[in-house]
Specification:
Radius of gyration: 18 Å
Strand content: 5-15%
Oligomer: single chain
Strand order of the largest sheet: 1-2
Largest sheet: 2 strands, antiparallel
Number of helices: 4
Order of helices and strands: EEEEHHHH
Number of strands: 4
Number of domains: 1
Shape: globular
Length: 110
C-alpha cells in the first residue's frame, strides 16, 4: 500500500535573519532536542562560524545547548549579531540583556 504525501510545505522563521525558510535549512538534533529544529538557520550558523573563526559544529553545539536548557527565556534578541558592534564600529543595536553583568568588581582583591 502506497502512502500519499501531504502537500504541505513546512517552513520555519529564523530568529536571527527573520526569514521564512524550508525546514531543511535548519538543524534537527535528534539526541538533544528530541526532533525539534534549531531556531537559527544554517546560513546564519555559517556566517557566525566564518566571522568568529569557530567550527560550525561548535556553533551548533552552543545553540543546541542554549535551546535545550534556556528555551523558556529565548527571544529574538538572543540571536542578535553580537559581534557587529565591535567589528563595524557600533552599527549594531545595543542590547539590554536585563541584568548587570559587570562582575569586574567581584574579581578584585581587597
Amino acid at each position: 500500500m502506497k502512502k500519499e504525501k501531504d502537500n504541505v510545505i513546512r517552513t520555519k522563521s529564523c530568529m536571527r535573519c527573520k526569514t521564512m525558510r524550508l525546514e531543511k535549512h535548519f538543524v534537527k538534533d535528534y539526541k538533544t532536542l528530541r526532533n525539534e529544529l534549531l531556531n537559527i538557520c544554517n546560513d546564519c550558523l555559517k556566517e557566525e562560524a566564518n566571522i568568529l573563526g569557530e567550527s560550525i559544529t561548535e556553533i551548533k553545539g552552543v545553540y543546541i545547548y542554549l535551546q535545550k536548557h534556556y528555551s523558556k527565556y529565548i527571544t529574538e534578541e538572543t540571536y542578535n549579531k553580537f559581534w557587529e558592534q565591535a567589528l563595524y564600529n557600533s552599527k549594531a543595536k545595543k542590547v539590554d540583556y536585563g541584568g548587570n553583568y559587570d562582575i569586574g568588581h567581584l574579581l578584585t582583591r581587597n
